[in-house]
């Protein structure tokens, strides 16, 4: 009884975060006070944190959600890929595009909701492809597909099962010779998506990928999620599935979801308000650690705090969890992996573990999930 009351309180608040930003993409957001609970940053005492989102009207679909569940819900034998292919994409519609980051974030990241009309169902951890319009001048044929990790659960943020949320960072090109951005070399698809308007049509492919699925057959699972930047997308999905919706998966979950996110500074944090609600309502089932490379605090060697430094702080706990069967996930720019691997190698050496054998074992057991780009 107590548990479900807490759960529903969390749900109401989480629903308030369906729209994480308030201004159209391209405009800077007014600075706002963020209540954070992290070991990396001096914190507001957690008990005094109040969700800041509006407690707006209840959305359709609040309450029990199971109309898109497999039977039993953890059975992944029916996970589909490539329902829509590049040659015959699904025409979706943009529902909303919202800037997610504050004025001091380097670059722009947008939360983009797309209506797929229920025709492109997906599982948490999968990606969509987007076909930007236009001709690739290098190949003299239409631009190819770009993949984007899905940031909503299968129900979509509106819980209709008909929408998908993407978390897209505008790719820009900084010219070292001029010391300025060169708009002629900006990324095609990311800028197309971030500049799109509600009602615009968008060509979608997918869903794709099975590497990042959640092993829900074990409700006591420990998920260790390591993200940089937009790599947060699949983990926002996981956390929403575990703590933000009244699905059988969420109701049965008794394990731990531990997120490490690396971004430049506080203004670059993504979905933080939503995560704070989950932390508040599930303090025994969730952990959250941020590494803010341009803001500090510094790592133990006095250098910038990168994601691998933050994970290293908890190396004993992470290794202990992996030894007990935890699944570890990585998502974000591929440049994050060498630092992670070096750090893990160093920890293994200190513990007298053969790193290659250790990693091989994790991979063989299906505990190691990497999707970097
Ligand atoms: P492109 O047009 O493909 O350009 C790529 C880069 O080249 C850009 O930085 C551009 O500025 C630069 N460039 C262009 N012309 C030149 C030139 N002449 N000289 C030098 N540089 C040049 N991205 C996300 O934002 N969010 C996600 O959730 C996400 N998930 C992904 C999941 C997977 C599995 C994969 C594989 C990728 C994912 N990506 C994600 C990356 C995404 O697919 C695109 O690669 C990204 O958006 C850039 O595409 P673009 O079309 O904007 O850039």
UniProtKB/TrEMBL annotation:
The yes or no answer to whether the keyword Cytoplasm is present is no
Tell me the first and last residues of the signal peptide.
1-16
Q: Which cofactor does it need?
A: FAD
Q: Which GO terms describe its molecular function?
A: ferredoxin-NADP+ reductase activity
Q: What is its EC number?
A: 1.18.1.2
User: One matching Pfam family, short form?
Assistant: NAD_binding_1
Q: Where is the FAD-binding FR-type domain?
A: 87-214
**Which residues does NADP(+) bind?**
149, 169, 230, 293-294, 304, 332-333, 371
Q: Which reaction does it catalyse?
A: 2 reduced [2Fe-2S]-[ferredoxin] + NADP(+) + H(+) = 2 oxidized [2Fe-2S]-[ferredoxin] + NADPH
Q: Which UniProt keywords apply?
A: FAD, Flavoprotein, NADP, Oxidoreductase, Signal
Which branch of life, at top level?
Eukaryota
Entry-linked PANTHER family: PTHR43314
Q: Which family does it belong to?
A: Belongs to the ferredoxin--NADP reductase type 1 family.
Query: What is the protein's given name?
Result: ferredoxin--NADP(+) reductase
Give the species.
Answer: Hemiselmis andersenii (Cryptophyte alga)
What lineage does UniProt assign to this protein's organism? Eukaryota, Cryptophyceae, Cryptomonadales, Hemiselmidaceae, Hemiselmis
């Amino acid at each position: 009884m107590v548990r479900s009351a807490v759960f529903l309180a969390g749900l109401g608040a989480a629903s308030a975060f369906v729209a994480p930003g308030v201004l159209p993409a391209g405009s800077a957001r007014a600075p706002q006070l963020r209540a954070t609970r992290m070991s990396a940053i001096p914190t507001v005492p957690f008990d005094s944190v109040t969700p800041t989102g509006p407690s707006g009207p209840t959305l359709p679909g609040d309450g029990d959600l199971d109309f898109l569940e497999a039977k039993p819900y953890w059975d992944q034998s029916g996970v589909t890929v490539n329902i829509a292919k590049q040659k015959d994409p699904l025409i979706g519609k943009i529902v909303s595009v919202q800037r997610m980051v504050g004025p001091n974030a380097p670059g722009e990241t947008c939360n983009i909701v797309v209506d797929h009309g229920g025709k492109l169902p997906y599982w948490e951890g999968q990606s969509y492809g987007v076909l930007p319009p236009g001709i690739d001048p290098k190949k003299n044929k239409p631009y190819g597909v770009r993949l984007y990790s899905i940031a909503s659960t299968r129900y979509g943020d509106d819980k209709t099962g008909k929408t998908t949320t993407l978390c897209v960072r505008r790719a820009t090109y900084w010219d070292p010779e001029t010391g300025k951005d060169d708009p002629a070399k900006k990324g095609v698809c990311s800028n197309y998506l971030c500049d799109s308007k509600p009602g615009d049509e968008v060509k979608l492919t997918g869903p794709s990928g099975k590497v990042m699925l959640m092993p829900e057959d074990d409700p006591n699972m420990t998920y260790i999620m390591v993200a940089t930047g937009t790599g947060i997308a699949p983990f926002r999905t996981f956390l929403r599935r575990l703590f933000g919706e009244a699905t059988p998966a969420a109701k049965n979950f008794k394990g731990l979801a531990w997120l490490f996110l690396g971004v430049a500074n506080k203004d670059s944090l993504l979905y933080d308000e939503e995560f704070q609600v989950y932390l508040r309502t599930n303090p025994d089932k969730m952990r959250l650690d941020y590494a803010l490379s341009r803001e500090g605090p510094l790592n133990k060697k006095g250098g910038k705090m990168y994601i691998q430094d933050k994970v290293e702080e908890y190396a004993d706990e992470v290794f202990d969890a992996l030894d007990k069967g935890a699944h570890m996930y990585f998502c974000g720019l591929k440049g994050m992996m060498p630092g992670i691997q070096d750090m893990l190698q160093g920890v293994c050496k200190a513990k007298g573990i053969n790193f290659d054998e250790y990693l091989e074992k994790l991979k063989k057991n299906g505990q190691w999930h990497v999707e970097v780009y």
